[in-house]
Each structure stands twice: as structure tokens, then as C-alpha cells.
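Issue 218. Parser rejects a valid record. Input:
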Amino acid sequence: MADSEQKETSENRVLISMEDGREEPAWFSKIEPFMLAVLDALGYKNEELSVMFCGDAFIQSLNKQYRDIDAPTDVLSFEDGDEYADDDGKTWLCAGDIIISLETLPVNAKYFGVSENEELKRLLIHGTLHLNGYDHGEAHVESGVEPDDEMLKLQETVLRSFSDVQLLQA
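Output the parser choked on:
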């Protein structure tokens, strides 16, 4: 499906941004249509979420402030859950915000032995699931190990369904 068709048919909204002072990468415009397709595949409707890309220093400050962990991380999700009605009377769920470190992304990809493209899709799906009430507790994806946690199983299933999607250059 073409990006413009996806935007017209999706019943969701996705806002994409970069940390102040960072340039948008060449692939930036591919994130919104991908996220709309993920939300649609998961059956979510009338959801609004945001995705922000940043560096390690920015995500580390958030990690320290909100989780009391003074270290960078790959992805943070801040669930909102508020609803609002737009001018047409349509009710929207503000799912929340996903923050992804572009500096940790390649480190993760190397650790897991996957492409940065696959890892980016995994982080976007992971954040989306967190915004929709999923939690994996202490369980994490491990290289070469099939997860047994409900959230991580769903994450990997959704990721496989988008295996042909190329967000980053190969």
C-alpha cells in the first residue's frame, strides 16, 4: 500500500519528531506510514501517539528523571491514556510518546546480530505495545532465544509480519 493511501485509510494519527538540534535522517518520512500500518495491524483505532528520535544524552536524562536509572537506553514509552474529541466529534485516545535513541540503535542491532532496519522496527513496535498496556516485566528479547513473555511474543510476531519493510537504507 502506498504511503499516501495508508495515511488516508488509517484511523490513527502518528506525530514524528527529532530532538532539537538534530537533523532529520533521509528515512524520517517513512516512520509515520510504518507506524500507521503497525497500529492498523494491531487493530488499534482512533489512537494518537508520538515518536521522537534523539541521542543518548537526551534519553539518559529522561531515564534518570522518570526511572531513576542514570544511563542511556534504547527506547522509552510514556503512556498517556487521555481521550479527547476533535472538531468533528470523533474521540481519540492519546496513547502517549515513544522516545528512541539513534545512538543506542546500532549498538542493539550489533548485539542482536540484526540489521539496524530490523532493530528500528522492533523498537517502534515495542514502544507501541507499551503504550497500549503491555508490559514484559524483567523479560527481554535475547539473541537467538524465542521469547516466552506475551508482549515479546506479540512484538516478534508483528515484527515478522513487516519483515519486507525497509525503513533504513540496506
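Fixed in the parser; the record now loads. The first strand starts at residue 13 and ends at 18.
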